[in-house]
Amino acid sequence: MELEWRDLAFHREIGAVIEALDSAQFWTRLTRALERYVAFDNWVALRFTPGEAPLVCAESPTPDGAVDAMFQDYLAALYQLDPFYIAATDKPASGFVTLADVAPDNFSMTEYYQRYFRKNIVGDEVHFNYMIDARHTLAFSLGATQRYGERDLAVLALCAPWVIALLRQRLPYETFDSALLPPQFGETLTDSATPTQLPTDTPADTPAYAARFAQVASASGRAALTAREVEVAMLTLSGFSTRAIAEKLAISFETVRAHKKHIYTKLNVNSQSELFALFYDAGRQGG
């Protein structure tokens, strides 16, 4: 077996990653090993759990060392519109995942894409996912300002088996501190640091976004959204077209249209942009 100098460098990098499995340098060394072969601009390692904000293992530093405000918005609520989060919590599985694999048909037209994804990640994103169990997934994300080319995706897919194996080996050394998370939109804080009160008939286990919609409907004196209407609202904000929602929920196209009409009436909005503002802007201002 003959090895070129590039092969030797690769083996040295992998050795350094394995050596760092139990140290704080693991994620940095893993990214260095990958960036020899594919260019990317940001990275983050997260644990996804259905109905809960992602927990951060590690993330790429900002140029000035400041807190990334947009990423804090993601952790506070926008993760609920993230196609990678939705896919990982809806149908968890280990593997290499591209944006094209998980993005809904209208993703690029959503407010989430225009106001967060395009500004924060800009071009493209891929994930290496390790399914911990039925409720938890360890996700390692690589974001790029440009679209990944066919060669890039082929190289990353080729690396996936050993990257995912390393994620599995790394897991016992990770700690997840939910106390570091920003307030969720269902837990908006007032100036006195006291959670705002949701309508008294809101179930205790209501997801943050459903609680937010319930709060808005109650404040305007309108009926609360039904569980199905909340589901349709979130799928709409995530980028699913009316037809895609109908297929996903196994209901008719006209039924979805009726749900959307009821949602807009109850929340007193006239567009997806206004619906997004209720979900995002109002909650953000109260944080």
UniProtKB/TrEMBL annotation:
Superkingdom of origin organism: Bacteria
HTH luxR-type domain ranges (all copies): 218-283
GO molecular function, one term: DNA binding
Coiled-coil stretches noted in the UniProt entry, renumbered to this chain: none
UniProt keywords, alphabetically: DNA-binding, Transcription, Transcription regulation
Lineage per the UniProt record: Bacteria, Pseudomonadati, Pseudomonadota, Betaproteobacteria, Burkholderiales
Organism: Paraburkholderia bryophila
Signal peptide segment: none
Record GO biological process: regulation of DNA-templated transcription
Protein's name in the database: DNA-binding CsgD family transcriptional regulator
